[in-house]
Amino acid sequence: MRNRALLALVMVAAAIFVFGVAGLIVSGMQDPASDFVAAPRGTSAPGGPQTLQLRPVSSPEPSPASSPEGSPDETAAAYFQAWVKSDYDAMRELVEDPPDDFADQHREFEDAALSKSLRITVGTIVRTGEDTAEIPFTQERDEQDAGTWRFDSSLQLAVRDLTWKVVWSPSVLHPEIQPGGSLVRTEPDVGPLRPVTRGGREFPRDSGAEAYLDNLVSQGVAPATGVAVGWALEVDNPGMPAKTVLSYKPEKPPAGVRTTIDYAVQAAAARALDGVQRGAVVAIRPSTGEILAVADRLGGRAAFERKYAPGSTFKTVTAAALLANGLSPDSTVECPASYQIPFNRSISNYHNEDHGTVTLRQAFALSCNTTFARLTVERLNGDTLVDQARAFGFGVQGESAGTSTCGSLGRPANQDALAEDSFGQGTVEATPLCMALVAAAVESGEWRPARPLADEAPQGELPQSVPLPSNVAEGLRSLMSAVTIDGTAAGSDLPQGTAGKTGTAEDYRGGQDHAWFIGYRGDLAFAVFVEHGGTGRGAAVPVAARFLRAL
Predict the structure, then answer these.
(1) Neighbours of 61 (CB within 10 A)
(2) What is the pTM of this model?
(3) CA-to-CA distance for 514 and 306, rounded, in angstroms?
(4) Which residues make Cβ contacts (< 8 Å) with residue 22, sequence separation at least 6?
């Protein structure tokens, strides 16, 4: 009986041993690698906690008396799970004697890498000793513009105080990083870069915009020292030259800082001035205030900075004040050859033209000085005219990048001065840029400051936009359309759909009159100025016609 009992005990023990070995073999058939996926930085990893599956090692099992807590694969799994979640505190708990700046080193690495996502693929664990192990892994990081960045590292583990711990060094972050080293992002630059058109093209030759481009550079808007093009990630180890581990450079580096200038519009403006000794064309997009062209044959940046008497183009501003104070385009008015201001001076029309009783629309189209002088004296005052001019940008403080002043109008001291100001003489002065913005405000119904740079570039200090009352904007459009249909610009080569206002301004310094024509066609407004050119119809309208027909 004793022999039978002993035999039964041996058989039970053998069965237990076989069952244990079978369990180990099943575990060994599991997938030898696992993936840990990080969501974009700042969010939780998808799918919740991952399960690490590792191939069992063949090294001898430690004796039960010295068996450590856990296992190397469990510690590694927990470490990688925490890493993809950027849980540096949890990672630190798994590290043997972590450095004080453990979390900072990770954050600095991530700040340099700027990875959009992180994936960690774990390889097969290797027992390098009874109490040590190593696990290889691959990092895959999605980098802006450069695609996927892959590199291999390894995680060292060891038993410390009967617990499996990570033996950490900076090489865990990247195999090239040594103690004291770090990953550094650099941004090589090219330059200096010149301003370019909104489409990235160089400006047309002899465009008349050269002084304006130089000004953008001198202001620092277009950096003279170059701009960053692409980037590189470098490992910077103490006492060693930096080593590039990843870089990106676009196939076509930017040609320069983008302005709002349109190449075709600029070319058309420049060619329209061919044969004009001293003149300027400024074009604006009414819906945005963007400068589409500036062709300047006046010298320097005169189209933006030098003020001239605007002549009858200023009647656009005066008409806005009259429309806001009760008149309409169809209101009946008088246009005599001359108008005697009560107890003051007499105002005459150009060549003493007498048009009798007309509508306000006709008086504007025929550019009647006497009509506007009388209506201003009788219906407006100095404050009203100054306020209306301010709504069109006159005297507004604040410069946008690359532009300068607009116009000025002093408060009229008496009725003589008020009458002269009403038709753009007296104290009224304006730049071609300013009058282009006036025309743009009529087309869009809102005065906007000039914008010389593309949307992504800093514009500097911009004044606030000013909407026009709807009846004023609609009335001004009716007046300006009449100028080209049956007024002072009718019968010219202007393309159909053009509206505008001519101006002939006396030069208070003496010499021949200045010629003006401002207007719009579609989403393009413009001012043409010819210094000492004579009449607006004779000198400025032909330039505008050449300009618009070239578009």
Answers:
(1) 8
(2) 0.65
(3) 13
(4) none
